[in-house]
Design brief:
By secondary structure, the chain is α/β, with parallel strands linked by helices. The chain folds into two domains: 110 residues, Aspartate Aminotransferase, domain 1 (Alpha-Beta Complex); 251 residues, Aspartate Aminotransferase, domain 2 (3-Layer(aba) Sandwich). Strand 9 and strand 10 form a beta hairpin. The protein starts with a helix and ends with a helix. The mean pLDDT is 94.
Length: 378
């Protein structure tokens, strides 16, 4: 990051942020986003104004559309990724004996979102993956005449592996199969041109790489698909009242023709103001700069800790591309990592692996200090 951005980040994030390597769990909201939220909460007289609320939703929708290079008409605001996946699954009219393909080692929400469908007689096929990686061929050889939907994570939450979503989307188009993508671990880490990918649905939570408060997210629905799906549920905000937003007891209005039809009711308006501001900050710094910064830090950590005897989970051909890096650990190294965390560093430590996920606020200097701390204990 150059001096201009360094100064901006010093204003937006507290000093401890430079030691934060845990964005794949939760991102740190910038100060300006928190101020937006506080301002909204401290003006309760505006909370109930429908026009103000609709304008806030529009701002959030526009922000979400810009971050993946689409139009607001393709964006429905949601509270999280799981909600978006659920909307997608329940809007494509799956029937008994239809089949959904999901790779093993995916984040659990991909599978658990399908449980109500399994109860209705829809089949879910879990296919083998390499630490969450699946190729188009892996999917192709598992497609049957009943396969109607594929769900993948664009980036695996544990390994940082980047799946070839565009190639998988092309395969699904050829086979007339719907592709639902969990995008929470990629959106905010790099430039995404969603309309060039062929993805049908992209579900994103804002609380990680978009640096938003938890409770804000969005679902992208492709132009081709939007007019061919049925909302699984609707509500008072699904309706287009045009120039008469206060005409609430007139039930003759039609549903929105765009993705707003999936926004059924009250959203976390104060949080959405922070969501929009956080995205503006990412745009100001520029996603291409953020990608270079975080992937270089991951590359440094991968090289330095590998040379100290740590076994990488993240494949070598993803080093320098991904913003998530992880290693296998045993009990001895788990103890080492707990000692390092006690010195103010934040990263993910789970049963058998450690994961680092730096973002724009994580400094390269602090990454070197982290490496020195770990090496001193090995």
């Amino acid at each position: 990051m150059n001096n201009k951005f360094s100064n901006l980040l010093n204003l937006e994030f507290q000093q401890h942020a430079s030691k934060y390597f845990n964005t794949a769990s939760v991102g740190l909201p910038p100060e300006s986003a928190l101020k937006k939220i506080k301002k909204h909460i401290s003006n309760p007289e505006k909370v109930g104004d429908i026009l103000d609320v609709m304008n806030m939703h529009l701002e959030a929708r526009k922000s979400a559309s810009r971050i993946i290079n689409t139009t607001p008409e393709n964006i429905a605001l949601t509270p999280n990724t799981s909600w978006g996946i659920g909307i997608a699954l329940h809007s494509i009219n799956l029937k008994k004996e239809d089949e959904i393909i999901i790779p093993e080692n995916s984040f659990p929400s991909l599978y658990y979102s399908t449980i109500p469908l399994i109860d209705r007689g829809i089949n879910v096929k879990l296919i083998k993956s390499n630490e969450g990686y699946v190729s188009p061929d892996d999917i192709k050889k598992n497609i049957s005449k009943n396969t109607m939907c594929v769900i993948i994570s664009w980036v695996n939450f544990k390994s940082g592996i980047i799946n070839p979503a565009e190639e998988i989307a092309n395969l699904c188009k050829e086979k007339d199969i719907i592709l639902i993508v969990d995008g929470i671990q990629i959106v905010g880490t790099r430039v995404v041109n969603i309309e060039d990918t062929g993805i049908d649905f992209l579900a994103v939570g804002g609380q990680k790489w978009l640096l938003s408060p938890a409770g804000c997210g969005f679902l992208y629905i492709s132009n081709d698909l939007r007019s061919n799906i049925t909302p699984p549920f609707t509500g008072w905000l699904s309706v287009d009242r045009g120039e008469r937003p206060y005409d609430l007891t007139n039930y003759d209005y039609k549903f929105y023709p765009d993705a707003r039809v999936f926004e059924v009711g009250t959203l976390p308006n104060a949080l959405l103001s922070g969501f929009a501001r956080s995205i503006s900050l990412l745009e100001e710094v520029e996603l291409k700069n953020i990608h270079i910064h975080s992937s270089e830090i991951c590359k440094t950590i991968a090289e330095e800790l590998s040379s100290s005897g740590f076994n990488l989970i993240t494949p070598e051909n993803h080093i320098g591309k991904t913003s998530i890096i992880s290693f296998e650990i045993d009990e001895e190294r788990k103890h080492i990592m707990k000692t390092v965390m006690g010195k103010g560093y934040t990263f993910t430590l789970r049963e058998d692996y450690v994961r680092f996920s730096p973002h724009l606020y994580t400094s390269k200097e602090m990454a070197q200090e982290l490496i020195r701390e770990i090496r001193s204990l090995v």
